[in-house]
Each structure stands twice: as C-alpha cells, then as structure tokens.
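Human:
If only I could read backbone structure tokens as easily as an amino acid sequence. I am handing you a single protein, as its sequence and its fold in token form. I hope you can help me see how the letters and the tokens relate. Thank you; the sequence and its tokens follow:
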Amino acid sequence: MSKLAYQYVVLRCVPRVDREEFVNVGVVLYCHATDFLRAAWHVDRDRLRALDPRLDLDQVCEALEFIEGVCAGDQRGGAAAERPLSQRFGFVKAPRSTVIQPGPVHGGVTTDPERQLEHLLEQLVS
C-alpha cells in the first residue's frame, strides 16, 4: 500500500478566550489524494464545565456538528459545505475568536485516512 499525505487540525473548545484555557474536542483530517475530508469529535462535558460552568455545552455540540457538516458537504454546513473540498478545509482551519477554534495545521502520512482520523481522535481528544 502506498502512503498518502494528509493534513489535520485539532479543534479546541475555548470557553473563556481571556483565560486562554482550552480542551481538545475534535479533529479534522484532509487527504487530497483520496478526496477525504472528515471531522470526528467528542465533548467531555465534565472537563468543559470545570473550565466554565456557564458554558452552553449544547451550543458547543451544535458548532461541532456544523463543522462536521462542512466537511461532509451536507446541509448542516450551510453555504460553506457547497465549496470544493480544499476550500472547505481552508474554512475549517481558519483561526476564529469563537468558542471552537482550530489549532495549528499538522501533517503526516497514512495508508488509511479514516483509520488515521480515529487514531488522532483517540490520542488527542479522548
């Protein structure tokens, strides 16, 4: 099997931007060679409540579902989901000053992007 290059970003929940504290909540992986763009996420409600008990956790999950929709190219992602794959990844990885923020872009190689996404989620989020 040939190795495929990929890029990924870790999605962070930053309940209070002024405190610069965050919890990793998801991963987005993009592999151009296989037209693979997918998000996987897990919200640890207890850890996030520890940072800010007032945080609207349902809204956090909705934001992550939106990102998942952008990656999947379905209606959950709105107009951004209609763009080409590389532009959707660009949209997701662009820094924002919201509660859900992407970390820096990282890269690697894999033979199975789906399995790599699951591995990254387990290693960096769960």
